[in-house]
Amino acid sequence: MSDTTNVLTLETAILPVLTQRRSPRAYSPQPVPAETLHQVFTAASSAASCFGEQPWRYLVGTQAGSPEAFAKILTSMGEFNQVWAKNAPVLGISIAKLTFSHDDNPNAWARHDVGQATATMAIQATELGLQVHQMAGFSPDKLRAAFNIPAGYEPVAVFTLGYPGDPAALPDALREKELAPRTRKPLAEFLFEGAWPGLADERYDQATV
């Protein structure tokens, strides 16, 4: 079932699933079946990557099946994220392999490609009635120590994954963010043809999750 909370209204029509993708803070406790998880991460594997390297790696912890891993990921987060992320059924880490496998040279595009894979994963999740919320508020050092992540691999982001829940269960401030209208910058602010423009200013208020 599609998530129709805060669907984006854009100037040009796009695939409906893209307008439905969002980054919720309210999650249902409903577990995500293993088959569904595999489908979500299989979608990540379909993403493009430099030299076909596929430098993405994912570590996940589920409340139902791997609570110790779940707890390790949760405690790596800033307290402001732990408040709501603890209710998601799945927590994950996206990780970049920083060198090419075919020659061991540095892969300057690894993080870009991990982002592509995770974005693809998030769209597949939305299609299945799930949502992903990616976060920068975490400690890479805590994750590296907790999971023995080796040198040459870098945690890129942490994320929640699960079925959307009731915003009423959130603290007031978070509930306001959950229900606030979502907007995006117009094309004229980020799509340039032929030359770099002289924009007077940029509106950073147009990037709500």
UniProtKB/TrEMBL annotation:
It comes from the Bacteria. InterPro entries: Nitroreductase, Nitroreductase-like. The keyword DNA-binding does not apply. Pfam families: Nitroreductase. CDD domains: TdsD-like. Keywords: Oxidoreductase. Residues 19-163 form the Nitroreductase domain. PANTHER family: NAD(P)H NITROREDUCTASE YDGI-RELATED, NADH DEHYDROGENASE_NAD(P)H NITROREDUCTASE XCC3605-RELATED. Belongs to the nitroreductase family. This is Nitroreductase family protein.
